[in-house]
Design brief:
It is built from three helices and eight strands; from the N terminus they run H-H-E-E-E-E-H-E-E-E-E. By secondary structure, it is of the alpha+beta class. Keywords: Signal.
């Protein structure tokens, strides 16, 4: 009986050790002393946010040939998506017209017919009603990219930087929080 008790304690000790190791592996990288990778453009992003918030020109932050991706998720109309490529850096300060497609498959209304139409994109107009401008620090953020949270967490901008700290891609998203 003493021998069985010893074996049981030994098995429990091994199980406890395995459990501890599993917990340690799952928390790997969350130690507060570990340096987290920051995209090259982080300080530039703070300047970008200040200029955006104040309605200032943004062309100096963009590379020529940058890409705009627009995405909206609406409970009635569904997903709306569009993209422009090969933009000049100064086009960010203008109203851009992009062809978008809305799938008509929202979760809160009857299915609608999909449609294509021209959408006028003005970053300054879209962010005018934002209640905050937060440089989010997501753990799984792509390298050389940042996310700026705006109207709640439903509207946000993702910026992607090149080696020269210029924005080469911007994704504007508006998610229906319903």
């Amino acid at each position: 009986m003493n021998k069985n008790l010893f074996k049981l304690k030994h098995k429990l000790s091994l199980l406890a050790l395995i459990s501890l190791l599993m917990v340690m592996v799952s928390f790997k990288g969350t130690d507060s002393t570990e340096k987290k990778h920051k995209p090259q453009g982080t300080s530039i992003t703070e300047k970008f946010i200040t200029e955006l918030k104040n309605g200032k020109p943004l062309a100096s932050f963009f590379a020529d040939g940058w890409i705009l991706i627009y995405h909206e998720d609406n409970r009635c109309t569904g997903s709306t998506d569009g993209q422009l490529t090969k933009l000049k850096n100064n086009q960010i300060d203008k109203v851009l017209t992009l062809k978008v497609h809305t799938d008509g498959d929202g979760w809160g209304c009857d299915k609608q017919e999909p449609k294509n139409y021209d959408f006028s994109f003005s970053l300054k107009k879209l962010v005018k009603e934002w209640n905050r401008f937060v440089n989010a620090n997501y753990e799984n953020q792509e390298e050389n990219s940042v996310t700026i949270l705006g109207g709640g967490e439903s509207d946000y901008i993702e910026l992607f930087y090149n080696a020269n700290n210029l924005i080469v891609k911007m994704k504007y998203s508006s998610e229906d929080p319903g």
